[in-house]
Amino acid sequence: MTAKSIRSLHRVFGKSVGRVTPRWLVEKYRHWTTDVYVVSFPKSGRTWFRTMLGTALQLESGRRDVDPTSVHHLWMFDAGVPRFVFTHDINAHLADTRSVRWDGRRYLKKKTILLVRDPRDTIVSLYFEMTRRVGAYEGTISDFIRQEKGGIASLVAFLNEWMGNLDRLGHGLLISYEDLHDRPIETMGEALRFAGVVIDPDIVARAIELCSFEAMQSMERAGVVQHVRLRPGDVNDPESFKVRSGKVGGYRNHLTTEDCAFIDKYITDNIGEALARYRWIEPDISIETMGSSTKSAEISTAKIS
What we know:
Elements: H1 3-20, H2 23-33, E1 36-40, H3 46-61, E2 84-87, E3 111-116, H4 119-133, H5 141-146, H6 152-165, E4 171-176, H7 177-182, H8 184-195, H9 201-210, H10 213-222, H11 257-270, E5 286-287, E6 294-295
Parallel strand pairs: 1-2, 1-3, 3-4
Antiparallel strand pairs: 5-6
């Protein structure tokens, strides 16, 4: 059966057949038709990444009738668009470190993008997700980062398991939230080429512009996307938004000095060499010789939390 025929059948019968088909068979079909997996720990910037992907592909094809966060549906309408499937894999944010083990057999013969983010920003963003947006946690942020299931230990274990096995994949690509911020056009271009799509850098730049922090927060506030993936817990509470603060290094605004010291030490002591960029390094602070003012690096802003 040709790819075009599969897409046509999926458009017509996909939802209705899926309701009566055994779950295991649906999963097998889903895996069979998947071209690219995107794996990440929750709150690693996945919604921003998927929206930029969807927008770039829409601009390239001229289709604007599917919301860009639904990039995983675009394959049904355009034979040139790969089927992306976004997953948190084993849901390590709900597991303790003993349960966080890599079993990536389903990814071995598929293109797989691993999206990572500074664990400090990730875990703080997850705290607001679990407390303000979905109401699944009621404790303090200090307790949250230290908890056995879903705290910083689970997050670091997830990253180490994946980084330790990424080279086992036939086709794997590592991208980071920070690179998406610092080099958005180059990083998005690399991800698209890896997926088998070549798009003019000007179109990619336009997609990035349309997916700015302000634009996406406006979309969420207005309810443009009719899906929980871009819906606030409380439209009057900015901390409950999916598109929340948009800062790289913003975790320090929410953690005490003691919490920062704990989380910095845990990451530095436990994260693998492959992600050594996230180990704590003392800031380079210089004091002006002719005055008492101190210079330090500014916290940069990104697009989506």
